[in-house]
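WARN no homologs supplied; continuing
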Amino acid sequence: MMIDKKCKVTLGGLPQKIHIKSADPSRPVLLFLHGGPGVCNRHAIMTVHADLLDTFTLAAWDQRGSGGSYWGARRETLTVDRLVEDAGELVLWLCGEFKKNKIFIIGGSWGSELGTYLAFRHPEHLAAYVGFGQVVHGGRNEEISYRFCLEAAQKAGDRKALDLLARVGPPRNGMYTGGFKGLMAQRRVMMKYGGYSQNAAKRNYFKAMVLPMILSGEYSFSDFIGAALGYRFVLTAMWGEVAATDLVTACPRFKIPYFIFDGVLDRNTPAELVEEYFKAIEAPVKELIWFEHSGHNPMSDEPEKFKSLLREKLGAIGGV
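OK structure emitted
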């Protein structure tokens, strides 16, 4: 029985938008946790990666304040703890909706931080976690990413980028001068020099992020306005907490299988921090798989390898 529905589920008192697709509701549920915070990914999951329906029931969620969940979200509720609890409530809702004991979660970038906290705090109804663009430590993350930008711009003799980075200045405890604008300036330089992806079409924020959303047909007009407004709204509200992240201290051990699928070339959430974290954590099963030709999003850079391994690793886990 094919299922393809968009609906709102009340999580933490706020109706939030989800999209569920299934070719067979008996298949395991895989919930995607998007990045940002504030950057929806329903369009990619339900179009580019819809072939995963051969193995999973797919669930994509616009987190509080983002996309279809923008309307009615209050700034004071945009906290890491609140989003973790929202995610936990959604897991329970999906278990009830599909009569499952457990589901799988997968998170990219900020979604990997959200998923890690969820796996650590509320493992009871989770079968396994998968992360990519894995967040580890906010302060060190930005130091390494900024240094990459500076060195790349110096090597290229890119005076415009160097002037921009000088105005932004080195981050302090993960925070940039100018707040949101400073962070976005650093990210534009990072993307230009391949720190997000080596793919030329993904070295520009509009081409990499915005255009695919517009062309996908996934979002209603209201959703799209929510995505445009929510990105800055959520990121500004939450970046202080995200920048203060230290998962080595906060989440050192897990009761569920913990997988990281990470791009070697990632300079958004630098790969060297991921290696350190993986060695430090404890889990009944843990595995770090490197994608040699990928940056921040190996699911996009090397999709066939990524999805083949996702089916293989999660398919070996029972109890769902």
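The two ends are 19 Å apart (CA to CA).
OK
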